[in-house]
Design goal:
Layout (H helix, E strand, L loop, with lengths): L6 E5 L5 H4 L2 H9 L3 E7 L3 H10 L2 E5 L8 H18 L3 E5 L1 H13 L4 E6 L12 H18 L4 E4 L2 H9 L8 E3 L27 E5 L8 H14 L4 E5 L11 H10 L5
Parallel strand pairs: 1-2, 1-4, 2-3, 4-5, 5-6, 6-7, 8-9
């Protein structure tokens, strides 16, 4: 890294998200003469090639996007401490749950003064406890958020509900919490297309499509119930579901989705 420029380390969990979700941000930083390096879980040739083409250095770390293995999380924390000591960034930006929790702690431990956190969702630990495991996970997550976020100069949220919850719990100071307008959409890659009038013809069935990871907190159960209610009156309406199963504890099971197909309330 050039010492004549401000440097920023961006920490995520899923490598491809650095391109799909943080790509425009990385490009904007580069355009503003900021040296950028990134870190995420493991090696990913496609992501690394993209970063290299942009002039960004990719560092693989060990960080599981889901799971509550204390040993694995300690390894993540030490990986991040070693990385930050090696890179010596002026600023650290972490996003998604585990990078925010452990990235903020590692950055503070290493003496980084400018620490920023992007909370993209609260996840499984903040759902209404349905088990002892979930209750314990929620308590641990809140403790770690309190430790980590108190060191952030700014904590960015993608919806006001998450901001309100963490402020009310005393996990983040109100004057440091900022709500963004989501990750945004690249309108050059996804150009506007006018709605086709033929879709309104009586002969054409109305189709709904939900694209999401198959997690309960994504509203998929509510989507299925809405489909069930609507199809009682309008049997010709179609409901489709596209997305991967997720190892998260709140993930749907394949048999749950197959039951909806058997019930003929939708297709997955």
């Amino acid at each position: 890294m050039s010492k004549n420029k401000t440097s920023c380390l961006i920490i995520g969990a899923l490598p491809i998200s650095l391109v799909t979700f943080r790509g425009p941000l990385i490009k904007a930083m580069l355009a503003n003469e900021i040296n950028v390096c990134v870190a995420a879980n493991g090696r990913d040739p496609d992501t690394e090639a993209k970063m290299q083409a942009w002039g960004v250095t990719y560092y693989p770390i060990r960080i599981a996007r889901t799971g509550m293995n204390p040993l694995a999380d300690i390894i993540t924390l030490f990986d991040l401490i070693r990385l930050i000591r090696r890179v010596k960034p002026d600023k650290v930006l972490s996003y998604t749950i585990k990078p925010v929790l452990y990235g903020g702690l590692a950055a503070k431990f290493c003496g980084v003064c400018s620490i920023y956190s992007l909370v993209t969702g609260l996840g499984y630990a903040f759902m209404s406890p349905a088990s002892v495991r979930q209750h314990l996970a929620g308590g641990l997550a809140k403790f770690l958020y309190r430790l980590s976020l108190c060191h952030s100069q700014r904590v960015f949220f993608q919806n006001p509900d998450d901001q309100r919850v963490l402020i009310e719990m005393g996990l983040v100071a109100r004057d440091r919490a900022i709500v963004l307008n989501g990750s945004g959409i690249d309108l050059e890659f996804f150009p506007f297309v006018a709605f086709r009038k033929e879709c309104l013809l009586p002969a054409m069935p109305i189709r709904f499509l939900l694209i999401a990871r198959l997690l309960k907190d994504k509203g998929i159960n509510e989507y299925a119930e809405a489909a069930r209610i609507i199809k009682r009156k309008y049997s010709q309406v179609e409901f489709h579901l596209v997305g991967p199963f997720d190892p998260n504890p709140a993930g749907l099971k394949p048999e749950e989705v197959r039951a909806w197909e058997t019930e003929e309330i939708g297709r997955a």
